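Morning - S-adenosylmethionine inputs below, output right after.
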Amino acid sequence: MAARAFVATELYGAAAPADPAGRVYHGDNLAVLDALAGKRSGGIDFIYIDPPFCTGNHYHVLRIAADEGGRQKLDRPGAYTDRFAGGLDGYIDFLAPRIARMRDLLAPSGSLVVHVDWRAASCVRLLLDRIFGPDRLMNEIIWFKGFRGTRIRRAFQHSHDTLWWYTKGGDYYWSQSCEAYRDRSMSRYNKVDEEGRRYALIKRRRHDGTIYYGKTYPQGKWRNDVLADIPTMAATAPERTGYPTQKPRKLLDVLIASLCPPGGLVADFFCGSGTTLVAAAAGGRRFIGADQSPVALNFTRKRLACSSPEVSFAVMRPRRAAPRAGAPGAVVRTPAGTLRRTGPAGETLDFWAAGPAAHGVFRPAWRAAASGKKTLPAESPPLAETGAIMVLLAGPDGREIWSLV
Ligand SMILES: C[S@@+](CC[C@H](N)C(=O)[O-])C[C@H]1O[C@@H](n2cnc3c(N)ncnc32)[C@H](O)[C@@H]1O
């Protein structure tokens, strides 16, 4: 696919079209990686991927919706399929060309982390050894997820994933990260300063041999290759979006802080609900995300568009897949200058945005999302625009409704 095969179709935040902090590509990541080759080669500081694990399963979004009568029902739209013809061999054939292209995109000081589980970890390591060289393996990181909930009756419980960390070269970026002390180690930090921070008075010796007590603040202990302080999210955790296989934000915070320089460029070519991109933006990094699932795109868009502080990002699509206004009647304009949704209550929509229809790229002047117990507002505030307005309604089932009012 030619380099300019993807075009910006939506732009969120205040940045100029050429300069958003992030780009989210909708499509097969092989085409995205080809489109990025050349322009971005050697330019990405850190790539994290959490691809399908070759589980053989279909994954569904979990959400509570209301039926016609307003009663709650469990809604399970499909998100993506983790099945490969040829099993593990087919899986490795799928990953190989993608990971080879990712290596080309990495900066000389860049790192790749591949997140897998017990099923494919050994095969993926051999693949990475082939592409990067075995001497570029820096860590086998074990993410201990804590208790998972699904019982295995005739084997030890699966409680960890494996993250392979490879670097492109020997002169790679690394920032030591610390894990908070547990309570027992904190007990010696038994004083509190004017700002409420705990410290200890530690006995020290000056050059002349005299003794003094110096203030020491807890720095935490250097992390090792077992991440055991990041439990998987409980079903009711506020962080949960409903996207299946979503990873905790803290896992990505730790990896990005350690492996990507401040202001650097992070990429996740299997971005799912956008956890890596949200963590990158919050950590002051630029980002590139890609996913082929329309369901994933809607989760990612919603998370980024509702981030605080505001994140500027563009949604990129294959040129021929640019959205077109249709579905007249999904939204009406009221005499007061507001927009009102006209769809049935409980429909599977949870994000909407509206903005002037004049410029080729959709740039919302207003947006709203449902989250937790907060439902999607049925009406916008008055919009200043007098000309035609483009409206996007999007749902966790991957549905997008574009209309012109
Ligand atoms: C394990 S999920 C990622 C979850 C993500 N880390 C999160 O926190 O939400 C894997 C994702 O890879 C996507 N995917 C699978 N094959 C793909 C392909 N060829 N191109 C782009 N995305 C793909 C799926 O749609 C799915 O969203």
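Note: The domain at 7-172+229-320 is CATH 3.40.50.150 (Rossmann fold).

O.
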